[in-house]
Fold this sequence. Notes:
Helices cover 85% and strands 0% of the residues. It has helices spanning 2-24, 31-34, 36-44, 46-50, 52-72. It has five helices and no strands. The protein is globular and about 35 Å long. Helix 1 (2-24) packs across helix 3 (36-44) and helix 1 runs antiparallel to helix 5. With 73 residues, it is mainly alpha-helical. The chain crosses the membrane at residues 53-71. Keywords: Membrane, Transmembrane, Transmembrane helix.
Amino acid sequence: MRKAIQVTGLILLLQGVSGAIDHLAVQPFMGVFLNFFNRVIVPRVEILAAQPLFANLALAVLGLALIIAPARS
């Protein structure tokens, strides 16, 4: 179970960082997969659409927390 949580955290971390890069510049690497949150979820949620860079960085921090938390318990 710990590995599944850590893999989910890694995916969230990659999507958050990729979305932040895509927001600042064009993301040429695996854009469809890594920018799913940035291109599908963020525009549809009004609160996230107001601050897309913050939303992507928050997703990256959440992913990092999911990677670290199972290892500490």
